[in-house]
Write a structure and sequence with these properties.
By secondary structure, the protein is an alpha+beta fold. It has helices spanning about 10-15, 60-70, 75-85; strands at about 40, 55-60. The chain has a two-stranded antiparallel sheet with strand order 1-2.
Length: about 100
């Protein structure tokens, strides 16, 4: 069984997210000093082979993280798109 222990320190994670962190999925601001306003997401879920490394960690709004469950980012975005389109929205991806 895989360990739940992160393979990085709190300091390394805080350095990664920077002084003005945003949710990596929604782009919304996060108050790093309010521990209830954010969570750490496994970008590739552990149940799908993801690990506890810093590269696989993303700072995330807790409700969004809960909604993502064990989906990959692409799967989660597709579900969001389906829900929005079903409710009358048009979803167009901006070119990168």
């Amino acid at each position: 069984e895989k360990s739940n222990t992160p393979l990085f320190t709190t300091e390394e994670f805080l350095e990664k997210v920077g002084e003005n962190p945003i949710c990596y999925l929604s782009g919304k601001d996060i108050d790093i000093n309010d521990s209830k306003s954010w969570s750490i997401d496994h970008k590739i879920p552990r149940s799908r082979g993801g690990n506890n490394t810093l590269d696989n960690a993303g700072i995330c709004n807790p409700m969004i993280n809960l909604s993502k469950t064990s989906m990959t980012v692409d799967e989660f975005l597709e579900v969001c798109k389906i829900v929005l389109e079903n409710n009358g929205y048009t979803v167009i991806k901006n070119p990168d």
